[in-house]
What we know:
The protein is mainly alpha-helical. The protein folds into 2 domains: 2-72, Winged helix-like DNA-binding domain superfamily/Winged helix DNA-binding domain (Arc Repressor Mutant, subunit A); 77-209, Four Helix Bundle (Hemerythrin (Met), subunit A) (Up-down Bundle), CATH 1.20.120.530. Helices cover 73% and strands 5% of the residues. The chain contains 9 helices and 3 strands, in the order αβααββαααααα. It has a 3-stranded antiparallel beta sheet. A hairpin with a 3-residue loop joins β2 (62-65) and β3 (69-72).
Amino acid sequence: MTNAANDGSLAEQSFHILQEQLVSLRLPPGELVSEGDLIKLTGYGRTPVREAIQRLAQHELFEVLPRKGLRVSPVSRDGLLQILETRAPLERLATRKAAMRANDEQRSEMAAMARELASSHDSFERFSALSLRIERLMNTCCDNEFLIQAVSPLRIHCRRFWNYYRRHLNLSDVIASHAQLMRLAARRDLKGTEKASDNIMQLLERLVSGLDEQS
Length: 215
């Protein structure tokens, strides 16, 4: 029983390590890797790493190539548009529930994050760190595990997209839209929060639509 629990914990840790490597592009899109490479990268054993790989493959972040190993899934413009189409209604619901269910302490944290975003001075690295903190806080406030499980893989793809196309971003607009979301959620403005969530998705969609596959 203990070994099974440990394997589960190590698989989760392996998943998060590999996810970060994918999002940060340290595992570049299109690169061929082996299971052994990923075992060395995580420092964990074959069983937990294999579980993490299977989970990431289910999320379309690894492609399993028979007799060749694994390929890091490319960043696809058309694929991202489909992801955004799917993510938008889920994100709208998740942010609404987070705004509705947050307690006073969590609302104060939302307001503080809005201020941090407003003073991030167009730093991509700072925005990336803050956006992860926002995601975790909103997940906690949302308090719907099924919804979080549905939207989380789509967010991973979008974070990888932010990194891949960062030179195309109007970062000040991205930061402002996230700060607005946090301000409205902190006020429990449910309609405003939904609209702010939609605005972020539309901003992403406009960016993706304006790119070609070779950008």
